[in-house]
Structures are given as C-alpha cells and as structure tokens.
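Suppose you are handed a protein chain with no further information: no name, no annotation, nothing but its sequence. What can you learn? This example shows the usual starting point.
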Amino acid sequence: MVVALTAAAPCAWGTTYIITAELLPADRPLLAAVLRSLPAGLLMLALVRRLPSNSWWWRSCVLGMLNIGVFFALLFIAAYRLPGGVAAMVGAVQPLLVALLASVWISEKLTPGKVFAGIAGLTGVGLLVLQAQSRLDGLGVAAGLGGALAMAAGVVLTKKWGPPQNLIASTSWQLIAGGLLLTPVTILLEGAPPSSLSMLNFMGYLYLGLIGTALAYILWFRGIHLLPASTTALLGLLSPLVATLCGWALLNETLTPGQIIGALIILATLILAIRPKCTSARGTVTLSGFIKERRKSS
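A reasonable first move is to predict its three-dimensional structure. Written in structure tokens, the prediction is:
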C-alpha cells in the first residue's frame, strides 16, 4: 500500500506534460510553476494552521527551493521546449543521482543492484520516448537534467532530515517557499500575468495545483520517509511511462515496437527492484510505525 500510494505521485506528474501542452498559455513556464505551487501551499497552510518551528524554518526554505522552486521552473522549461516523453526521459536519470547522493549523505549502500536498476530504467525510458519522431532542444535538455539533480538532492535531504510533526503542514511550507522564490523571477523574466485566462487555462492550473501538486507531494513525501530514498526515486520512472501513454491515448500518438519494449523494461525494473521492499514493508513499514517515528522526533 505504501508503494502504491507513493507511485500515484509520479503517475500524476506524468500528466503534467500533456496538461502543459494542451491547456496552459504558451511560453509561460515560470508562471505555470508559480500558480502550481503557491496557491496550493497557501490553501494547505490555511487548513492546517501550523507554522515551522526551530530548524524547520531554514530546512523548509532549502527543501522548497530544491523540490519546488528550482525543480518546477526547470520542469516547465523542459516541458515547453521538449516533447513530453523526451522531457520525462531526461529526468529519468534521477534514480541514479538519488542512489549516488544517498550513499554519500545518508549512508544508503550503493549496491550494484541499485546501479543496474537505474541504468535499466533509463534504458527503458530511452526506448520508450526516443523511438518516436521527436525534436531535441539543448536548453530543454539542460533544464531537464538540472531539474532531475535538484529533485534528487531534495529527495535525499528530505530523507536525511526525517519526518516532520505534520506532513501536510511541511508540504505546504515547501510549496510556499518554492512559490515565493519563483514569483520575482517570474515577473522579471516573463512580465505580469495575462490579463485574462480562458476556462481551459483555469482548469489546467487547478488540476496541476490540487492533484499534481498538493495531493501528489503529500503522497511523495510520505513515501520518502517510509521507503529507502533509492526505491522512492525508482518510482519516478512511472512519470515518463504515463506521459507516453497519455500521448498515445489522448493525442493519437503511435507506439512503436521499441517503445513497447521500453515500457516493459520499465515495468520489469520496478517489479524486480521494489517487490522485495513491498514484502518486507508488510511487517515493518506501516502507517502506525510512521506515526510513532513522528512522535519520537517531536
């Protein structure tokens, strides 16, 4: 159950690319990042009414910058400049980055199995998206790689600093910190927001804020605290898979045999890498255990 709920987050993120291309205003990636994070964070904070305490003030700023501010900005730049699957493929290097950073920062052993899983996942994503007729953009690729590195660092630091007293509150702090960081940059580079938004624009921002951000990040951060960092990162491979399936189902994009093989490699990698964790988690990693850990840390 822990793995399934955590996996729902990257599945939601996989829809970001089609929402960006079909529903959001053109050439406003930073505005999309701000409207995705700041309103959702303020809404969550209004619901829980809890502010950070002690070290969580600066920790929230750091995590908000990595997980939200920098990541969202680079994610939307990549989404605007690259086809959805290609943007997701570039980000698929994240499991390898997480495994490497986790071995240094939190002493998670860098095993050959983790490296193989990361390479296999990246290969699968490459087959999934690079068989299609796609254009590559240097700035878009660089943005995708930078976003993957920021998110990888955020995942490992989130694991390193342990669970906060209130998961919803801590998620809101990060969303607000990231949104506030992005706001002046957005105004400087993109100018004022459009004077009017269409109903489709509004629906796109609403979906990304509530489903793709608020709900997804609560599930994602919960999974980071309950699962090894490298295991959580591997679940991110579902994002490009969902992005490609959305293009196939909703935009009538054709799936080649190579793409189907890539999808099967991704699924096989996830099953082989995560199944042992699911088996052990049934007896050791539970919601009650998570609550006990939170009480100990408070």
